[in-house]
Amino acid sequence: xxxxxxxxxxxxxxxxxxxxxxxxxxxxxxxxxxxxxxxxxxxxxxxxxxxxxxxxxxxxxxxxxxxxxxxxxxxxxxxxxxxxxxxxxxxxxxxxxxxxxxxxxxxxxxxxxxxxxxxxxxxxxxxxxxxxxxxxxxxxxxxxxxxxxxxxxxxxxxxxxxxxxxxxxxxxxxxxxxxxxxxxxxxxxxxxxxxxxxxxxxxxxxxxxxx
Length: 211
What we know:
The chain has 211 residues and is mainly alpha-helical. Helices cover 70% and strands 0% of the residues.
């Protein structure tokens, strides 16, 4: 798909050069600069139009050091996505757990939080959208992320509705609807809370979960 043809696992020479420069696989500053540069360039130029030489220049590292940390350019892209998604999942739910203030209030609070987290433009989400059709690995990672987000939100909704045991199909369906809707806002250029106010949405979801 137009990607580089020279990408191979790091050679012994590349590893020796990296070691001679005082860098090791655990050298987080260099690895972090590579990830930051790759995120910026993949978002701006696209995966297939970004060479590892350009990433190395942006990160101020030898090109061989990229392959010291990542076997291929695709592995580098997946690492960029994984780091972003770990942070996303960690902060996906409101800090305040569902309490005794009622299901509609808990759903409204969840929607407001999801709108802030998923409704802001993100370079990594831009990369995912750009590369979904061309690269099956990215599509698979996006599906896995959506499943992880939906599982977290479904558990929150089950707790808020005082549902015993594991979340039911209704909680899972509501979770997928909420995460998809919140994530659509950047594509439409509108804040999620403008597109769907929290009050009516909370009433709708709450009634469905009680049915």
